[in-house]
Amino acid sequence: MREVYFIKQNKEKWLGIEQVIQGKIKKNPDDLSSLYINLINDLSFAQTYYPKSNTTVYLNHLSAQIFQKIYKTKRVEENRLVYFFKTEVPLLMYQYRRYLMYAFLFFILFTSIGVLSAIYDKDFVNIILGEGYVNETIENIKHNNAVGVYQSGSTWGSTIGIIFNNIQVGAKLYIYGIAGGVGTLFALLSNSVMLGAFQYFFYDYGALKDSARGIWLHGVFEIFAMVVEAMCGLILGASILFPRTFSRFNSFKKGFKDSFKIFLSTIPFTICAGIIEGYVTRHALKMPLILNLMIIFGSLAIIGFYYFVYPSIVYKKTNKHIHDTIL
User: Fold this and answer.
1) What local confidence, expressed as pLDDT, does residue 29 receive?
2) 3-class DSSP state for residue 285?
3) In its keyword annotation, does this UniProt entry include Lyase (predicted)?
4) CB atoms within 10 A of CB 249
5) How far is the CA of 205 from the CAs of 75, 198, 217, 283, in angstroms?
6) Which of 54, 121, 287, 294 is the most buried (most CB within 10 A)?
7) Measured between alpha carbons, how far is 217 from 150 in angstroms, rounded to an integer?
8) d(Cα 19, Cα 13) in Å, to the nearest integer?
9) pTM for the full model?
10) Of 152, 140, 137, the residue nearest 278 (C-alpha)
11) How high is the pLDDT of residue 326?
């Protein structure tokens, strides 16, 4: 069947499904299940005969929306907060997974720019990090205390300040996405270039190993959360620039609602990062190396699993549950 005829034959049905997703047409769970099965059949046909077509992309997006609509009709027996982190956010992460890939690619690119800039311009680190900070850290390195800057101030005072600062940075990465995602990319550029220059600075002074033992104790949660927050900003921007078949306003509402939920999921990791930085990082060079590595790689395993692996597990599990229920 030619693609044009396939679209013409099913267009009204697909537009009707959009109305259901937007809440303009009410359907009971059985009708929703029938729509889902029908749509999956259309998607399978499109994937077979028009694999690189916009029609396939559109149907895949529509299937994800109706899938969530069905799953939300199921009575939530567990605690709402548990459901939010255990099911709702992972399903959204699966739906928008390509935006996480985009955010990480931009992060790697911008961090590399920071490293290269520090390599070819010896004044770049002073400009980015501040001359006072650089001079203080150089003195700390000379005294074999690369993480000395983290040892100033009280533990609880530093922790509170760090947490609020990190949440503020994350909020900017997200909210700036309202400028079509450009604001988010600019904020990510600023933070990533700083990180790249920061890491090269320690490498240049022969203290990369000691700095990594301290910085990445809290840095895994902090930086990974920053990338996810940038992902949220990109989702917000894309909802404005690419409304698909929705009105721009409805697309923005949906994009904001979904991205804000993902953004909220980063807050616990940001708080954990602040606590580690305030209470643990200052002792980094006195700790056994194995303990440093356990915290660093343990943190990476936790947050990496939650945002990369777990969403696929939840999607497959809920998809199987829906199929078992409606068949």
Assistant:
1) 61
2) coil
3) no
4) 10
5) 58, 11, 20, 21
6) 287
7) 12
8) 10
9) 0.79
10) 152
11) 45
Count Cβ atoms below 10 Å from residue 284 Cβ, excluding itself. 26
The 3-state DSSP class for residue 147 equals coil
Q: State the 10-residue block means of pLDDT for the chain, 327 residues long.
A: 80 81 70 74 81 80 75 58 90 93 97 96 90 89 86 81 94 96 96 95 92 93 97 96 81 92 96 94 92 96 97 83 51
Helix (H) or strand (E) holding 213: helix 208-241
Amino acid at 286: K
Amino acid identity at 201: F
Q: Find out whether 253 and 236 touch, Cβ atoms under 8 Å.
A: no
Locate 120 and state its tokens: 């070819």
For residue 281, give the 3-state DSSP assignment.
helix
Whose CA is closest to 194, among 226, 231, 235? Answer: 226
Contact 113, 193 (CB under 8 A): yes
Q: How far apart are CA 124 and CA 10, in angstroms?
A: 58
In this predicted structure, what is the pLDDT of residue 245? 67
Quote the CA–CA distance of 216 and 287 in Å, as a whole number.
14
Strands (E) in the chain, as ranges, are none
Whether the CB-CB separation of 6 and 46 falls below 8 Å is answered with yes
What's the pLDDT score for residue 189? Answer: 97
Helix (H) or strand (E) holding 64: helix 54-73
CA distance 43 to 60: 7
Please give the pLDDT value at position 13: 83
What torsion, rounded to 10 degrees, do the Cα atoms 118, 123, 128, 129 define? 100
What backbone phi and psi angles, to 5 degrees, belong to 107?
-60, -45
Instruction: List the domain boundaries for the chain.
Output: 3-74, 80-324
> Tell me, what amino acid is at 263?
F
Backbone conformation region of residue 165, classed left if phi is above 0, alpha if psi is from -120 to 50, else beta: alpha
Give the Cα separation of 65 and 323 in Å (integer): 16
DSSP SS3 for 4: helix
